Amino acid sequence: MPDLAAPLVEWYRANARDLPWRQPEFGAWGVLVSEFMLQQTPVYRVIPHLEAWLARWPTPTDLAAAAPADAVRQWANLGYPRRALWLHRAAVEIRDRHDGVVPSDIDALLALTGIGDYTARAVAVFAYGDRHPVVDTNTRRVLARAIEGRSQPGPPSRRDLAAMNAILPEDRTTAAVVNAAAMELGATVCTARIPRCDVCPLSDRCAWLAVGRPDTGDERRKQAPYEGSDRQARGAVLRTLRDAANHAVPLADVVPDWPDALQRDRAIDSLIADGLAEADDGMLRLPA
Question: What is the DSSP code (8-state) at residue 201?
Fold first, then answer.
């Protein structure tokens, strides 16, 4: 196993982006909210929404006291709006189970709504400084290239955590930096399409670069195009509800000009099933 930790730490301390959740005073709630928002959403889109969210609800208890509809509306156009409902439910659970304090224990974090293995580990490591491997898409790409000599990682598996754990130093503080550095390297240098190997701190020990950067295939699932998709229809319906007075619209007036009426109706049904909308008395509204 090549020593990846030392060059990652040195590179990160000189090149890390100045992001809000990396500030020492940001706190566990801010880290948790940022992780919810960063799922499948670029950093530049998240930052203004994150700042607005934390200004409105600076603690889990503040969010728990708000209506779910307020959370969905504040989520605005971040996409995947179920995350807003999940975050609201998690805030209620933090208030009721943990006296309003985001827990540090991974099992306690996993028991909260909407929190999976990655988010639980990210909060434990980046908010509380515990030593755990944290693996996102960017980290997996760095590990696949540097250690396995693959151009892209395979499907996510527990092996990713084992591979990341193997390069972590025992010191908790340094281990947290290595976790962050691997993510940052994948996001800014070891990118999916145009990796900048000439400025990579791992170039002298990267297995993929050593064998000439072969294309070893890409087994990752491809996301369907957004244009014309059910996701686009769901977004149009939610946008109508967010913008409406009292967040309620007669069902007949919900994006009536949508080109595919069956798709629109399917979107409405799926939003109701997900708890993102409610229908009664001929009206569609955000959840109470």
Answer: T
